[in-house]
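Standup notes, structure subgroup. Blocker cleared on the adenosine-5'-diphosphate input:
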Amino acid sequence: MSIKKRLIISNIGMIVIPILGFLIVEIILAYLLFVVFNGNPQGKDLSLFIQFRFIAMVLILIITNGLLTYYVSKSILVPIKKLSIAAKKIREGELEYSVKSNKKDELGELSNTFESMRIKLKEAKAEQILYEQNRQELIASISHDLKTPLTSIKGYVNGIQDGVANTPDKLKRYLDTIYKTANDMDGLIDELFLYSKLDLKRLPFHFEKVDLYPFFADFVDELVFNMESEHGTAALIANKEESFIVEADREKLKRVVVNIIQNSLKYMKKDHKEIQVYLFSKPNEVVVEIKDNGIGISKEDIPFIFNSFYRTDTSRNSSTGGSGLGLSIVKKIIEEHGGTIWAESELGKGTSIYFKLKKVI
Ligand code: ADP
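Run returned:
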């Protein structure tokens, strides 16, 4: 019941209940008057009779007022007190005190609004903690990934200074390694820069209609040519009759495909390398599958491969190189398109990276 209704009813009660009480008192008094005192009380009986009447009426007024005021104020003050405690706790940063109410009145509604605000604040706080954790991990990873090649460059330069590279051949090898390492660092910094711009949403996207069939056909043609020398094969598998037109930023989408395919080529220790690109046209979206027959990813690693700086143990211990940023960049680009990305894989058999984009109908 709403507070307004409760107040109206209690006010009516404060008038009606005493009237009824007075009526009952009058009936009792009339009974006493006519049955006990034969309609004519005298002296002491008369003053007792009047006193009883006065005391009974005052008691009725006090009890009715007291009870109704207690009931109404309790139903208002208790939730207000609870809300005030919760507000104080929130001010002190404690977000566990629940003020959920199942009452249907204005205060119940206020408590529930307050409760959803508390839950939102709690979620925001948890997100903030996670963000802070991520930031710290990111700084640690960046420092590590930049420090390692720098240490190696310093080592080689020291070697040259100390005369260890004492033949022209050795000197060339040292310089080549320094150059390659510096190049890798350059690549890492470029990726970091791109990742941070995507993370801060500072990278402009230019969306246009892109037909994914010719888009991937060009890609696959180039891939077939590049893989021929290693006896590898690549193919585009799609039903040409269907529509594969999506709204996308062509350049960013290229980056997505290049990163995924580079991984397929990097993590493929097979004599016969195979990459297949499948396009599936669904009623409202186009699903792309890029499938390889590489080393695969274990089930435990799959949920993390799109996280920044995540590299599986196998790739960390291999000589392939990589920053662990490739797939996190891919994910951010796909999400900026309003799409989703996921992976399926089996160790030793291969990996499929899927992403879906909204279809232009
Ligand atoms: P990296 O720079 O290490 O390649 P990515 O973000 O591109 O980083 O990929 C994250 C990790 O996911 C890689 O280190 C690798 O372990 C794994 N991975 C990604 N793609 C494949 C693939 N096609 N086959 C096997 N492992 C893969």
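Discussed briefly. The mean pLDDT is 91.
Next: hand off to the docking folks.
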